[in-house]
Amino acid sequence: RMEVGQGITTSTAMIIADELDIGLDKIEITLADARPELLMNQLTGGSNTTMTTYLPIRTAAAIARRRLLDAASTMLGGDVPLAALKTVDGKVLAPNGVEISYGELASSASVDETVEVEAQLKEPAEFTVIGTPRNRIDARAAVTGRKQFTMDMDVPGALPTMLCRPPTLNGKVDSVRNRAAVLD
Description:
Elements: H1 8-20, H2 49-75, E1 86-88, E2 91-93, E3 99-101, H3 102-109, H4 139-144, H5 179-183
Antiparallel strand pairs: 1-2, 2-3
């Protein structure tokens, strides 16, 4: 997806903050480069990004939270059941008062291969960030000119381009009025 002013970096950070129990100020959102093989799955428009990425982002964050809890349990000798561990403000808290930061757990929580797991998502009643008013996390960069938008990019040799899609799914081009100019 592209951030074109609709606030997806902020909404994404809010989703992650709630599932991971970490402050919004501790989350840095970066957007991936466009990928041609994902043609219609990179659509930015119609305010659909947050709605379509909400569950996948929550799921990824919940899986990360579980991996952090597993790593903390191991670090504590495996004697503390996962249900007894709590996550608060970027730390795992043990019942005996021991606190382990996510940073300390990151290496242990990472995996080298894809493993199928089931995510345990939080209940909406547990949300403390989603649904609350927040300032845009990219606002200062946008108003000071530090934020880079697509139109700000300098791509050597690039020419102004417009893509026109047919109004129907799987539509085909019948003709191009300026074909010679396009091919030139």
